[in-house]
């Protein structure tokens, strides 16, 4: 006794709340046609979670709700609650009593509850499948549905039997696993597609990363090259600065010295004083000659006068010759000749001589005439001559002195000129030397300029190096590099930079993208592995479930067949009936026996009525069909008894004799399952331990009431 009660309110014709409580293993529900008996059976299906509207004789959810009439308005919802006794843990839930509840609203929405807690349909289904109860299971046989199993296809039949054997749970698990497997396979496919899709991109990104790695190496190489270059260049420049500075010292002091020397040499040599002196000497010499000429002239004149005076005296005294003696003329001429000879080219001396000759000739003329004799005159003349001769003598000595002075002056001038020449020579020598040194210094300056350019250049290179993060303040290199090596190093830097540029720029986004893509790929790889593992597990589960199902099915089928045969023989007083598992094999096109593509297993029913040659179901009478289906339904419920069985007028087509047999079989069934029998049949009513009457008044509302057998018989009518 698992089923305690069922409560209906607003469900179909049960407009008002009604309750059926079960206290006997067999409960009978009786009542006239159209009173609402079948509605109660459908209330069971409803609360157990039936989803097919057809099996509840409706089209939509609201069809299950009291539709109302002139007297009683329509209900908003239909509610059915079913109470289970769960002391024996029929349902796998830790309650002694379990209330299942389902409500359908006018908008078609459904609500489910277990012990008042809202649940999903799935929860209800799961809970019931463990107890071999299903909404549309074989344990609720609707009116006219008894031979459903006979009319069903072989495949459907197999499913009905599987359910009866309680294999639904396995099937459910299997379907669930198959669904999971399908999903998993789909996921594997998707993950593989995704992985394939990102593969080229990943390859591309990996190439980018290699490039990045390469350019990192190049950058490092570049940094090192820069650093080494700079260190060497700095040292070179420092050395050069020192070298050039020290190379300046000597020429500079030399230049200084030369400049000083040059200043000294540059003072012009004073030779003008000597020239002035010479000129003065020459002027004096000229005036000396003039004076001498004058004196000579005067002497000539005086000498002439004296000679004349002397002749006159003699003529008067001795009356000797009246003319100047020849000797005297001869002396005079000798004297003149000598003078001219001494004069060399001196024109003044010649002039003097001519002058003397003139005055001699004057005197000579005078001697030709008689002159007064005057001794006194002679004396004064002789005095005058003497004076003149004295003057001449002093002039002559002065002349000698002048000659010496002039020679001295000339010597001095020559000396000075020589000195000047020497000085000029020295001056030019110094200038030449100065120019040489200046040239040397200019060369140094030029070198310094070149060095400055190098320094500027280095500065630029250092900026560049700093830009790429070169640490310049590092320990100096110990090696020495030639200029050519440095130039090569610079060229190498250029080459590395070109290669760096060529290797392209990999930005942060690409790196992130690579990491993301790689992570994604690794994730997909793991996921595929996980999915494949669970695929394998699922396949194993399905295989084991398949095995379990097929073993249990075969065992169950065997048992059902035993019972089926028994009930059949009972109902028909003989004959045989069997369920046979048939395999419909669909071969592939090559029709090879080995290559079976699909096996469809179904259940065939084979019957052999006593004394009749009937083997197919199609030729059975309505009653015979009913008996066969009852035999089968009972057989199924015997093998794996459900907690309760509801049979809605399964006995309708039976004659009295068969009704009695049916009632007996019902009692057998009731030993293992609780029975709720909707019936018009007196024999069946007799078998029931308790009876409910369903009535419907003019208000169209079904009512339930507990009735005694006699009442039931009358109610049923
Ligand atoms: P029978 O002995 O002929 O099988 P029954 O007792 O099984 O009769 P049901 O089929 O249970 O009768 O009841 C059918 C009645 O229920 C109909 O008369 C129908 O009017 C009524 N009914 C069905 N659905 C509704 C509904 N939604 N609202 C009101 N009444 C309904
Ligand atoms: Mg009915």
Describe the overall structure.
With 717 residues, the protein is of the alpha/beta class. It has three domains: 212 residues, 3-Layer(aba) Sandwich (Rossmann fold); 133 residues, no CATH class; 157 residues. The chain has 15 helices and 14 strands. The strands form three sheets. A six-stranded antiparallel β-sheet has the order 2-1-4-5-6-7. It has a six-stranded mixed β-sheet with strand order 8-11-12-3-13-14, with helices on both faces. A two-stranded antiparallel sheet has the order 9-10. α5 runs antiparallel to α10 and α12 packs parallel to α13. The longest helix is centred in the N-terminal third of the chain and has 98 residues. The model has no long low-confidence stretch (mean pLDDT 86). It binds adenosine-5'-triphosphate and magnesium ion (MG). The site of adenosine-5'-triphosphate has 16 residues, from α1. The site of magnesium ion has 3 residues, from α1.
How do the helices and strands follow one another from N- to C-terminus?
EEEHEEEEHEHHHHHHHHHEEHEHEHEEH
**What is the residue-averaged pLDDT?**
86
Share in β-strands: 5-15%
Which sequence of strands runs across the widest sheet?
A: 2-1-4-5-6-7
Main β-sheet description: 6 strands, antiparallel
Shape, please? rod-shaped
The value of Rg in angstroms is 82 Å
Helix content class? 55-70%
The CATH superfamily title of the largest domain: P-loop containing nucleotide triphosphate hydrolases
Distance between the termini: 29 Å
Which hetero compounds are present in the coordinates? adenosine-5'-triphosphate, magnesium ion
Tally of individual helices: 15
Number of DSSP strand runs: 14
Low-pLDDT regions: none
Q: Tell me the domain tally.
A: 3
CATH class of the largest domain: Alpha Beta
Question: Which structural class fits the helix and strand makeup?
Answer: alpha/beta
């Amino acid at each position: 006794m698992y089923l305690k009660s069922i409560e209906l309110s607003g469900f179909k014709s049960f407009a008002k709340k009604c309750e059926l409580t079960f206290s006997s293993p067999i409960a009978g529900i009786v009542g006239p046609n159209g009173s609402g008996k079948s509605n109660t059976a459908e209330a069971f299906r409803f609360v157990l979670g039936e989803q097919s509207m057809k099996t509840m004789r409706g089209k939509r959810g609201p069809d299950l709700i009291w539709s109302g009439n002139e007297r009683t308005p329509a209900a908003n919802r239909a509610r059915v609650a079913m109470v289970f006794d769960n002391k024996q843990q029929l349902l796998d839930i830790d309650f002694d009593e379990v209330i299942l509840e389902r409500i359908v609203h006018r908008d078609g929405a459904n609500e489910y509850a277990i012990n008042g807690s809202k649940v999903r349909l799935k929860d209800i289904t799961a809970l019931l499948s463990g107890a071999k109860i299903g909404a549309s299971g074989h344990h609720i046989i609707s009116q006219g549905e008894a031979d459903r199993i006979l009319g069903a296809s072989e495949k459907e039949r197999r499913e009905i039997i599987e359910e009866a054997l309680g294999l639904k749970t396995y099937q459910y698990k299997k379907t669930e696993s198959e669904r999971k497997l399908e999903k998993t396979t789909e996921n594997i496919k998707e993950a593989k597609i995704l992985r394939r899709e990102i593969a080229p991109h990943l390859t591309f990104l990996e190439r980018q990363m290699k490039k990045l790695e390469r350019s990192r190496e190049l950058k490092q190489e570049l940094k090192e090259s820069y650093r080494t270059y700079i260190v060497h260049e700095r040292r070179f420049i420092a050395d050069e600065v020192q070298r050039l500075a020290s190379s300046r010292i000597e020429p500079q002091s030399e230049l200084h010295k030369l400049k000083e020397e040059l200043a000294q040499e540059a003072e012009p040599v004073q030779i003008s004083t000597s020239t002035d002196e010479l000129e003065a000497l020459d002027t004096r010499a000229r005036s000396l000659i003039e004076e001498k000429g004058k004196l000579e002239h005067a002497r000539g004149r005086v000498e002439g006068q004296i000679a004349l005076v002397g002749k006159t005296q003699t003529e008067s005294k001795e009356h000797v010759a009246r003319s100047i003696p020849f000797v005297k003329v001869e002396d005079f001429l000798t004297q003149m000749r000598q003078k001219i000879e001494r004069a060399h080219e001196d024109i003044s001396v010649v002039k003097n001589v001519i002058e003397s000759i003139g005055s001699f000739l004057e005197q000579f003329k005078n001697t030709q005439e008689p002159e007064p004799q005057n001794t006194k005159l002679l004396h004064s003349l002789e005095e005058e001559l003497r004076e003149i001769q004295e003057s001449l003598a002093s002039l002559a000595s002065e002349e000698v002195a002048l000659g010496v002075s002039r020679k001295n002056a000339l010597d001095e001038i020559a000396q000075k000129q020589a000195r000047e020449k020497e000085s000029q020579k020295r001056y030019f020598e110094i200038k030449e030397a100065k120019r040489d040194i200046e040239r040397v210094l200019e060369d140094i300056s030029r070198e310094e300029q070149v060095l400055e350019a190098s320094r500027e250049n280095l500065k630029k290179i250092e900026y560049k190096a700093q830009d790429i993060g070169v640490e310049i303040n590092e320990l100096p290199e110990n090696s020495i590099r030639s200029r050519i090596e440095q130039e090569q190093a610079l060229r190498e830097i250029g080459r590395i930079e070109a290669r760096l540029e060529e290797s392209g720029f990999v930005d942060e986004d690409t790196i992130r993208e690579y990491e993301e893509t790689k992570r994604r790929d690794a994730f997909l790889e793991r996921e595929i592995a996980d999915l494949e593992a669970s695929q394998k597990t699922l396949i194993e589960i399905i295989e084991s479930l398949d095995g379990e199902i097929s073993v249990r099915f075969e065992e169950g089928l065997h048992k059902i067949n035993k019972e089926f045969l028994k009930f059949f023989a009972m109902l028909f007083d003989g004959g045989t009936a069997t369920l046979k598992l048939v395999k419909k094999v669909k071969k592939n096109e090559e029709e090879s026996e080995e290559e079976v593509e699909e096996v469809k297993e179904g259940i065939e029913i084979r019957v052999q009525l006593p004394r009749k040659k009937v083997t197919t179901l199609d030729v059975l009478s309505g009653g015979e069909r009913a008996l066969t289906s009852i035999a089968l339904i009972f057989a199924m419920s015997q093998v794996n008894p459900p907690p309760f069985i509801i049979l809605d007028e399964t006995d309708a087509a039976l004659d009295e004799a068969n009704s009695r047999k049916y009632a007996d079989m019902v009692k057998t069934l009731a030993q293992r399952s609780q029975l709720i029998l909707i019936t018009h049949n007196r024999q069946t009513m007799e078998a029931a331990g308790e009876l409910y009457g369903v009535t419907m008044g003019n208000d169209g509302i079904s009512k339930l009431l507990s009735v005694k057998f006699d009442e039931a018989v009358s109610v049923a009518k």
